[in-house]
From TrEMBL:
Molecular function as annotated in GO: hydrolase activity
InterPro entries hit by this protein: CheC-like_sf, CheZ_family_phosphatases
PANTHER family from the UniProt entry: PROTEIN PHOSPHATASE CHEZ
Keywords in alphabetical order: Chemotaxis, Hydrolase
Keyword Hydrolase appears in the UniProt entry: yes
BP terms from Gene Ontology: chemotaxis
Entries under Gene3D superfamilies matching the protein: CheC-like
Protein name: CheC, inhibitor of MCP methylation
Superkingdom to which the source organism belongs: Bacteria
Length: 206
């Protein structure tokens, strides 16, 4: 028997669509922040246990990461992280606060700016999940993360958790950046998450 978190193809499609809706909402807010069109897309969503997630991180996530993390609770309980390649995070910050600011000042504002970006994107995704699945999710304030990918899964959660790794492509001005969303879901709430998605699919087909 498959674990509760092993979604069917239809359920996986719903999760991908929820993420696309969430980052679509975030793109509108992000566009206002940088005063330019921002296009965000979700090319890939993967669900994995901790060992599978570590292998996925090793294969696709850069060695050095910068971003933010926050916890959430409700229908699903866990934590979420928005991560960027460490060497590219300053590019994203520069897009928000402007090209003319000296490099040392940009570095000082990096964590604050990434927290603001993370707040927009993470909360847009969580709010979309809550709205579509007719439930409530409450999240903490984002906290900065700047470290290597080694041990990231242990920082995010333990062996009683699953990882939903969401790759995001950013397109703004002349920049094409890649970021990652990692939602760590407590296994005890994974079945409730699946049940809510199944109910949503029933409503669509009814």
């Amino acid at each position: 028997m498959a674990p509760a978190w092993r979604f069917t193809e239809d359920e996986q499609d719903v999760v991908t669509e929820l993420m696309n809706m969430g980052v679509g909402r975030a793109a509108a807010s992000f566009s206002r922040l940088v005063d330019d069109e921002v296009v965000l897309s979700v090319p890939l969503v993967r669900l994995a246990d901790m060992s599978e997630a570590e292998a996925a991180f090793a294969a696709s996530v850069p060695e050095v990461l910068a971003g933010v993390m926050q916890s959430f609770e409700g229908l699903i309980t866990g934590s979420a992280a928005l991560l960027f390649p460490g060497e590219r995070s300053l590019e994203l910050v520069r897009a928000v606060i402007g090209e003319d600011m000296p490099a040392e000042e940009i570095s000082e504002l990096e964590q604050e700016t990434l927290a603001e970006i993370g707040n927009i994107i993470l909360n847009s995704c969580l709010a979309t999940i809550a709205n579509v699945l007719k439930t409530e999710l409450h999240s903490s304030l984002p906290e900065p993360y700047h470290a290597g990918r080694a041990g990231l899964t242990r920082l995010l959660g333990g062996n009683d958790s699953i990882i939903m790794l969401v790759q995001i492509d950013f397109s703004l001005k002349s920049r094409n950046l890649e970021g990652y969303l990692a939602f760590v879901i407590d296994l005890r709430s994974a079945e409730a998450f699946r049940s809510a998605i199944a109910e949503y699919l029933e409503e669509l087909s009814g």
